[in-house]
Amino acid sequence: MSIDQPQEKWKIEVNDRYQKVIGSVVALATASLVLPALFLREFLGVPKETALMPLLNPRVYLSWGLLFTSVILGIVFYYLSAKWVKSAWGQPVALSASIERLLDISFGLSVACFVMGIGALLWFIAPFLHAS
């Protein structure tokens, strides 16, 4: 077992691809957190002097919760991914037995929370569009 080369280089390359997907999900989820305010101000023309709180409903809070959870799970994925790469290089890691399963779970849940968060956001926006 050499530390000059990873044990299974292809797995590290695949992990890099997963990291790119999670990077996109985290960036989109973070950007989506401002969409309700942007929608209300720019598309519905709510003046800047008017508070947005009365216009927000549980759908927005659900969306924010899911999107925030997606970001947190993405960060967890990055942390676990770094540990996994360390393991792939043959270095000891405390989580080595369960790390791949945790990577799969954090990846899947991050993507699922993002999709559901966008769905909740659309659920919030739809009645405003229908009323116009």
Description:
By secondary structure, the chain is mainly alpha-helical. It has one domain. Helices cover 73% and strands 0% of the residues. The protein contains 4 helices and no strands. The chain has helices at residues 9-32, 35-43, 58-88, 99-131. The radius of gyration is 20 Å and the shape is elongated.
Write the layout of secondary structure elements.
Layout (H helix, E strand, L loop, with lengths): L8 H24 L2 H9 L14 H31 L10 H33 L1
Helix pairs in contact: 1-3, 1-4, 3-4
Give me the Rg, rounded: 20 Å
How much beta, percentage-wise?
under 5%
Q: What number of structural domains do the residues give?
A: 1
Alpha-beta classification: mainly alpha
Tell me briefly what this model is.
With 132 residues, the chain is mostly helical. The chain has 4 helices and no strands.
Features:
elongated, mainly alpha, single chain, 4 helices, 132 residues
